[in-house]
Structures are given as structure tokens and as C-alpha cells.
């Protein structure tokens, strides 16, 4: 029994390690710490703790550096530069026809060594636009999209540095973890604000933030200091007003410069939807960067849904299946053992029970009568009575004397 108990404990431990979502109440990118749900590091899709070295699987847009860590951008080799293959979540080398490539082997980066490719407009520039959701990668010579959709700027590790307006930034794990009330920069998980955006006034009683102007991200004395995404500053009023639909950065109500991810800027200045699976695109037909969960075609332009399962996934799945089979086998063996013990106990009870006997002693034997047998009285047979012979001596008299036979 001891070895079975130890085997069960071992199996349970392995299952916990390979199945970080112990609690079904935890959401995406979260793990159960034994009492509550917490977020994984920005690079992890699943994890066992908040550390960047505790990933069990990598988030979309990251690659597997080793068994417990994930990377955001690849280093270059001695001859060719590398890219992150979103399908296999590994670093691969660009084709010999490309000095730099974008998310695929033969999708060459057309920008020179002193420029950065901008996927939102398909142009090359000496820098990446500020607070547009990029990391400027000198190794790939492009503006790499931050993988967190609520992030406006990120580091070389992929950790978010600036979140969209009123989103709580957990700098320890590099994620924008929750939307706070308007004007609030930091809030508790239940939504209660405890810190306001710059120059907003905090009301300690109501736990709210106020600003005399509308549409501000940062408040000011005479006008909004900065506007929320999708709005523009009217200096005449000091307020921020909405851009056109799906526009992230604009300078007037009709002049958009950067669209929200998933949209592209048309010649008319309006934002239209990209094809399915595109984070950015240059037209309704050509993707320039893929959305989380998609990968780029080998020569670029199309993003496909990622249905690839890494060998690690198969290995972990096989281990889990093997352990489940062992546990089921142990449970079934225990059931069979219990059944055998129950049957043996029942047989022992029947064989060792006392049966009442009625014993009738005689001179030579003891007549045994079983209590379950009905005692029958058999009548003597009739009709067979015969006259008993008369053996009495008859006397005969001859000539005056008695003759005895």
C-alpha cells in the first residue's frame, strides 16, 4: 500500500506542475497560487508563478528560449539575422535573399540598416512612433508590435512600459492587467482607485479622480496635458475630442495618422478593417504583421490561424495521459481488491457460523435432525395382519390315558 500511496502523490505532483491552471476560476494568463489567481509574466501563456522563468508555455508572439523562459526578439547569427516564427514559437534564420525579414523566412524587410520598418503604414522611418504600441528593434530593423493589445510601448523583453489610458500597469510582470475608472492610473482588483493620472484630483472619500476638462489622459491647469487615445486636443477649449472611427492618433477630427491595430489608413484618411488575423496591414489584402494566435505566410502578406502544437505540448500531453492511466489503474485495482476482501469476509462468515443441531442420544448412535427438515410421522401399514399360529399343546385321550405328543 505504501508504494501505491507514494505513486499517487508523485502523479498528483506532476499533474500540478504540467497543469498550472489548478483552479478553473482563474482567467487567461493566470495561475492559482493556492489561495487566489495571479497573472503570469507577460511572456507566459501558462505558468507556475509570476516569475519570467516559470513559463510552462509561451504567449503568442514569443518564442521558447528554454524549458521555462520565453523571448520576445531573436539575436542574430554570424551570417544571417533571425526572426520569431509565430507558428512553432522558435527563432529561425532569415532566407539568404533577405538581410532582415519580418515574421517569415522570405518576407524581406525593405528598410535599410539605419531605418525601422513601420507595419501600420508599410513605410521606413528613422524611429518608431511614440505610444503607438511598438518596440524599436535594432536587430530586426523594424517596429515590433507589443503583444499586449492594451500596451502603448514595451521593452526588449516584451514587458509593457506604458498602458492605454486608465489601464493598471503591473510593472513586475509587464502586463496591463485591468481597466480602472476614468482618470485613475492604479486600482485594486475590485476596481477601487487609489492613484490618479497626472494632475487629476483624487477624492479620498469616493475614491474617484476628477479633471475640469474632457477627454484628458493627463490633466492640466488650462487644458488637457495629453489626450486619451482616439482623441485630439482642441487648444481653443482645452478639451480633447474624438478622432474618426478606429483611429488611435489624430491631429484633428478628420486627420488620422495612426489607426488602431486591426485597421489600416486609407488615402482618404479613414481607417478600414484589415483581413482576419492581421495586427497591421497595408491594405484590405496585405498583412504586414500578424495578430496573436496567427503566423505569417512564408513570403508575407497573409496571416494564418496557428493550429500547430509544439513537441513540448505532445510530450506534456503524453506524460499527463500516462499518469492518468496509472491513477485509473490504481483506482480500479483498489476496487477489485475491496471486492475480493468483501467476498472473502462473506465466505468466512458463512463457514464459521454456528448451526443449531438437535441430537438424540441412543445406546449406540446419535440421531441428528437438521432444524430445516420437517419431521414426518409415517403411519404403520395396514392390511397385512395375519393370524398368528397357535402353538398351544393339544391333549389327546386314548383308551383312558393321556397321550402327549
A few lines on this structure:
With 405 residues, this protein is of the alpha+beta class. The chain has two helices and 36 strands.
Query: Poorly predicted ranges (pLDDT <50, ≥5 residues)?
Result: 16-23, 313-321, 353-373, 380-405
The neighbouring-strand order within the major sheet is: 1-2
Number of strands: 36
Please tell me the overall pLDDT: 82
Q: State the end-to-end distance.
A: 100 Å
Coarse shape: flat
List the keywords.
alpha+beta; 405 residues; 36 strands; disordered C terminus; 32% strand; two-stranded antiparallel ribbon; single chain; 2 helices
Report on the architecture of this protein.
By secondary structure, this protein is an alpha+beta fold. It has a domain at 22-71. Helices cover 14% and strands 32% of the residues. Strands 1-2 form a two-stranded antiparallel ribbon. It has a two-stranded antiparallel sheet with strand order 3-4. A two-stranded antiparallel ribbon has the order 5-6. α1 runs antiparallel to α2.
How are the secondary structure elements laid out?
Layout (H helix, E strand, L loop, with lengths): L1 H17 L11 E3 L4 E3 L4 E4 L7 E4 L4 E2 L5 E2 L10 E4 L4 E4 L22 E3 L4 E3 L8 E4 L4 E4 L5 E4 L5 E4 L3 E4 L4 E5 L4 E4 L5 E4 L4 E3 L4 E3 L5 E3 L7 E2 L3 E4 L4 E4 L4 E6 L2 E5 L3 E3 L5 E3 L4 E4 L5 E4 L3 E3 L6 E3 L5 H41 L6 E4 L4 E4 L26 E3 L2 E3 L2
Antiparallel strand pairs: 1-2, 3-4, 5-6, 7-8, 9-10, 11-12, 13-14, 15-16, 17-18, 19-20, 21-22, 23-24, 25-26, 27-28, 29-30, 31-32, 33-34, 35-36
Helix pairs in contact: 1-2
